[in-house]
Amino acid sequence: MMFALTPAIDRLKEAASASHLRACIFLLLLSFAAFLPGYSTLQPLDRDEPRFAQASKQMLETGDFVDIRFQDEARHKKPVGIYWLQSAAVKAGEALGVPEARTQIWLYRIPSLIGATATVLLTYWALLAFLSPPLALLGGALMAAAVLLGVEARIAKTDALLAACAVATMGALARTWLDWTRSLAFVPDRRNWLVFWGATALGLLIKGPIVPMVWGLAILVLSASQRSFRWLKPLRFGAGILLCLVVALPWFAAIMIKTGGSFFADSVGQDMLGKVAEGQEKHWGPPGLYLVVFFATYWPAAAFAAMAVPFAWVRRKEPQILFLIAWIVPSWLVFEAVPTKLPHYVLPLYPAITALLLLAVLNGGINRYRRGAVLTACLVVIVPLALMGAILFGNWTLDRAVPWIALPFFALVLLMGISVIAAFRRQDFEGALWRCVPASLLLTIAVYPLAIESLRSLKLSPRLAETVRAVGCADPAVLTLGYREPSLVFLTGTKLAMAASGADAAAFLNQPGCRVAFVERRFADDFKGALASQSVKPRLVTTINGFNLNGGRRLEIAVFANSPG
Question: CA 336 → CA 273, 304, 448, 453, 484, distances in Å?
Answer without folding.
Answer: 15, 22, 29, 33, 32
